[in-house]
């Protein structure tokens, strides 16, 4: 065991290691934490060595998973220590414990700057490393020029300059404005002449980031990069210490090739030829060797070269070499290389017409689908999905189905979806398609959404020669011991419509079919029961003359359902009893469903639109596809028999049909799924089509205008449900609420993201004014159209923003600057009403913007005497308000202090002698000027769920709003009840768009 | 119109390595270093999630796992798992060799490094890492160069200790 050099630390670590269980460990750690806390509190006699030791101990305790927040201050303070030994500990531990958003970091900006511009090289290194690892926006603004100077300085040693390069990279990521392209691109060219490979590697990393965001600005670096690559691959004048297992810095090679992938084209033919030679050399010259590390390093370079060849997509020979190599890789045993072979082959499909050559490797790729490693299985699945076309769909889909039975849960959903999409896209014939989907339902029913089986029904209905086959298949599946509910639905439907075509087969008489379907009845949910009832009446109808025995059995079922709570089932039961007694008129009404109008599957259309451009199937893309499948059926339009298109989202209420005396249960009509005549399906929901049991030949009924109350009533639960359904077709890939919460404490971040678009926010708050920039980034390979951005400002905010273009091109980003001025205090936020249309789907979202009250606050440093003076001057309501807040999220006082600080309500520690109290001061800025607000919180150590909150300021409105704002921040809404009455918009005193939102959220 | 439309702009410029984790076979954390801003809560969650996934993977599988839209490259050395999280587009083998590069440097420094070395000298593991990576990017690919810097740092700290010792000796002498 090596000596740690600090005895106390070693002893402590040994103690912890000797603990028998977690409980003992906790006791030992708590003892140590208590000790450190006391020592920090009473600093007298605390030597530098001890401080250092305690801070290291805290890092160790932190790694064990304990909270050491109390020590952040001491840790950060060590940065300002004069001696290297302490400074080093301060810098290293700070960068491990804190992230860029911690306020404590602000306290040391000056010290850090002094270390950076000072003459002491070791201090420079420490400071650059820390800023490079955790520097945030403020560091970016105040340090970037100094760091740039160090990077280009002639007098600094390489050690400092390489750190400066990476530090600048971090600052650039935080705020791209710190680098001015015009001046800096020339500097970069010079930096690329660097002889020291350590510095050059760091500079190249910086260049990757610069070029990635502005390829045009740095074209002058292109030739230098190619030259560096040539030099490396030829091993010209590379120091021994910069070779890795005999390979000249593989990392620098990879990075250089990465830079080259960001330049759109290489125009200069000499440079291009030089680059092609290098790439050719890498492609042919990389051999498999025994040493793992050498192999990895050389293949890292090789895969990057393949990526670069794909990017250039200019040379046929190079391209076919790549395909040949990848073909070799997907067949090797070594898992890493095989994984990467599969991954890169999938990428290759995107850029080049190589599907024929890739098909040769199908057998190997399918083998990987059964690999024990889920990472490899995923890659194989993606590749199979990408390479599937008409010629191999049958093989591939059948492989996927076979694999589905043994696949682990983590991959099932993806697998089922991909199989469904491929089956629809490339079905060689419809019978095969029907069979695949039925198998899919059997093996992974949970993952087969309704849209998929609706599609099956459409195909079967429209193809006479498919009907008997489908009904027979459905009958077979019902014989199996465990039948998924989706299978019951589709089988019930198909047998209801078409079982009469099977009547002569053994086991398929109407009675037998009825019994086998009805066996499932007790175990299924109500929507399925409704489908089954329709199936029964249809089976009955097909026995002409009516089978008396069957009629008795079926009617018995209907009678039992007459009193079911569910309106849908009840209505059907009542109606069908009546209908089944109508004799021959039943035959008219219950005739087979007419053909659906041919319509292109939105999925297929989408696939055609993006053909050749996007075959890769990431999880997010899958979700998009799934959504487009949903559209196949949700597509509002004349769904059946050329009915008029719907004019309202909400289904129109229908009058009761003449044949049913008492069935006018209005509620059942509203949802429009069961009205027993065809115009009921005008709600445009295919569900209506499929479930409406009656044929179009029914006597036409004129539709009276709907009672306005039902159409216009926004409170109708169904209307809301339909609306939600539409909105949710494209789902955000995260929680809007979480994003908002994060943004309420930060100045930049993601506001919203779905598979197509990312909306980011960057904001700069200056007293009562703010510059907020919305970044709308199209993540997709197709344009987003009908982009509409509306900002509904809250009454207390003045907001201005410029027009947004109607279309966002593929992979492009649009910036929308918004100017915000705060007029008065309020807890409300502005709302962004945002909508766009992808190639198929309209998407509309309403998002709260983080223009919260705390953004207009700034911590006010205040002395004890000033505080007391102000506090006393404000005597009572309305300028000084007090509330007892219950249902507070339990947290230690220190955490609450941190929360306040993060909200820009500056806690003044030590002002209140009682440690359970917090006193804070902040300045609220509005157009009217600055208002000093004072806050006092008294917590009860025995009951952390309540506290007394007092807020005081000159402005009664600001006082009230700040008090309420703080309450909102500390109350744990989901767990504890809010003391205020039910949070209806009115009760919260909200007006404007935020009030409208409350209802939605 | 005040809007700029630029082609091919990545929405948020990616990090190379988002974080580095060292986890023992028993699931104990031996080192964590976060280059992307994760809050304390997220950090705990990430560690829990990933250690579960990585420790349960058998031998002879590939060194990459796909996780939350990112990729984790990991390698086991004796009882320790070294993990680095990168973006999906990043070069996996290159990252794998950064891990090995770091391990070789540790090995050279400690002389046949073992888990105990890294437990009792975790602080050194941290400052050695700081000489290998900054901002999630490889800082130095020469092992020799890293070794030189670390040796210089050790000297500085030892000097400080001697000074402190002699100082406390003097005080002890004086107050006798």
TrEMBL record, chain A:
Keywords: Coated pit, Endocytosis, Membrane, Protein transport, Transport. It is found in: Membrane, Coated pit. Residues 635-659 are annotated as: Disordered. Residues 643-659 have a biased composition (Pro residues). Pfam families: Adaptin_N (PF01602), Alpha_adaptin_C (PF02296), Alpha_adaptinC2 (PF02883). Adaptor protein complex 2 (AP-2) is a heterotetramer composed of two large adaptins (alpha-type and beta-type subunits), a medium adaptin (mu-type subunit) and a small adaptin (sigma-type subunit). Belongs to the adaptor complexes large subunit family. This is AP-2 complex subunit alpha. It comes from Sphagnum troendelagicum.
From TrEMBL, chain B:
The keyword Transport applies. CDD domains: AP1_sigma. It is found in: Cytoplasmic vesicle membrane; Golgi apparatus. InterPro entries: AP1_sigma, AP_complex_ssu, AP_mu_sigma_su, Clathrin_sm-chain_CS, Longin-like_dom_sf. Keywords: Cytoplasmic vesicle, Golgi apparatus, Membrane, Protein transport, Transport. Pfam families: Clat_adaptor_s (PF01217). The keyword Protein transport applies. Residues 17-155 form the AP complex mu/sigma subunit domain. PANTHER family: ADAPTOR COMPLEXES SMALL SUBUNIT FAMILY. Belongs to the adaptor complexes small subunit family. This is AP complex subunit sigma. The lineage of its organism: Eukaryota, Viridiplantae, Streptophyta, Embryophyta, Bryophyta.
